[in-house]
Amino acid sequence: MTTTCKKTNKVYLFVKIGSFVCSIFLAVLIISCQNQGKSALDQETVERLREKDIDVFGSYAIIKLPIEKGVKVRNPVKIILGPDSVLYVANNTGEIYSLHDSDGDGWEDEARLFCNVKDDGLRTPVGLLFKGNELYVGTAQEIRIYTDQDGDGKADISKTFFDKIPQSEHPYEFTSGLTFGPDGYLYVVLSTDSWNAGAAADPDGFRGAVLRISPDGKEVEKFVTGVRSVHSMVFNQYNDLLFIDNGGGGNPTEELNRAQQGKFYGHHPAKYNNPESKELPIHNFVSEVAPAGMVFNPMTNDFGGTEGDLFVSFFGPGERWERGAISRLEIERQEDGTYQIEEIPVAKRIPKISDLAFGSNGDLYITHVGKTDYWYQPIEQIEGAIYRMTYAPWIKPMPREMLAEEKSSSSSEDVLAAGKQLFAEKACSACHSVDGKSDLIGPDLMDIGKFYSKTELLEEINNPSLRLKPGMIATKITNVNGEVFLGRVVGTDQDYIKLMVIGNRVLDIPKAEVKSEESYEKSLMYNGLLNGMSEEETDALLSYIINLKEEND
Predict the structure, then answer these.
(1) 377: how many CB neighbours lie within 10 A of its CB?
(2) Which of 464, 491, 468, 245 is nearest to 375 (CA)?
(3) pLDDT digit string (tens) for 309-364?
(4) Which strands sit side by side in the sheet containing 310-314, from one edge to the other?
(5) What pTM value is reported for the model?
(6) What letter does residue 404 receive in the DSSP assignment?
(7) DSSP for 417-476, written as a single string
(8) CA-to-CA distance for 200 and 197, rounded, in angstroms?
(9) Between 454-462 and 535-546, two packed helices, what is the crossing angle to 10 degrees?
(10) For the chain, what is the mean pLDDT?
(11) Can you tell me the distance from the alpha carbon of 255 to that of 241, in angstroms, rounded to the nearest whole number?
(12) Confidence band of 142 (pLDDT split at 50, 70, 90)
């Protein structure tokens, strides 16, 4: 009996070992099969093609895709992974493309036209979201669903999903951030109309709000209000809705927010009856200005040890075409529902980045918009590109110290005091707040040293009309009596245009008395501000400005 038991145990042990070996073999086989669908990017090819002018703060290579076949991709704005593991890209002119590897060498080299929203009389498709094989597209006028029924790679039917959108001809009316919630409802943002003198009537206050739309598109409610220019929203693993927003017009920072139903987030308070309180961001970005896109790296994708991290793209300021960045956020949710967030740089000097998407191969795909006009609309020549960022463990990361902003070598208390005095003498505070709260006719300057170097600030002051942020573009209004008003639109309603003029006075101009209104694409800051100042005085003024946060702290 004992012998039999020993034999049985030996047989059982053999079976267990065999089963373990088989399990290992099966796992290797599965991984091998999975990897067969992924492109093999060899080190030699990556080194030959990677963009070496981009500052990368990790073991990554960034490569411009050789999209040379099919249709031309122009100023790509949005990118999303489709259910067929194919990437789809949209631009502001209306085209939506799919990307393909035509020769099987591991690189997407062909673009095919999936649809053009202009064929349906629509414009600006900056919101993309798949539900099954249905592509929901947010345009300036409506959310429309496009479907490829016959599988030929082109949308053959489309239908309106939601069209209760206040609209005008203003080019900065976006329907963006499309994402489905765990409740099955569609969450979407309509960009603010606070700077639009010709804004359409909006009695429900939809513009400048996150909307929650029923699965059939028939019911809608405001979920949160007081948002400015939100281009991306995502639900995290805790079913919290996160959204990014740009600084300006009541938003003192470039920010990440958690959307909580019924809350107000600070922008355009007059439109929402001046709420007594506003919800604060859960994180203020420091990598760059104008956060534009974000995507969670799946927990199954290592990508250099960043599984579960939130990747964020930044468009950068105005017409500084070389500016742009990518960062990632390590996010930890506390027991009380608050968040602990660390922002880590990924890439800088990557120009005009709009959106991000992880491909089925685990790489990060990036839309580079390229040069545009003031309102981010395409110019005559074909611009922009699509980058692909792949993990390359042999690449030595650039040290983060390289991110340090240019600071004045002379920032003693005496120099800062002299700069503060010059700031007052030049009446800078008449147009620029420095507290991160007040909304004056010019941009708030607190923390500006995080995003602009001394050289860049000097360029902005010496040539203020060279680069204008859309939200800061002035408007010239002529009334029926021939009176002309020039200032910055800070709000509109059904009856009045609220125009902030020099001196920070807000005029209520009756719409019924307006004969014409037009953009005035020159800065309201006068030229020659630094005329007559010595080099030392200029340095002192700039030192004060870039240290404003430290000064206020």
Answers:
(1) 15
(2) 468
(3) 999 999 998 888 999 999 999 999 999 999 999 999 999 999 999 999 999 999 99
(4) 55-56, 339-348, 325-333, 310-314, 291-296
(5) 0.86
(6) P
(7) HHHHHHHHHTTGGGT--SSSS---SS---TTGGGT--HHHHHHHHHSTTSS--GGG-EEE
(8) 9
(9) 110
(10) 87
(11) 14
(12) very high
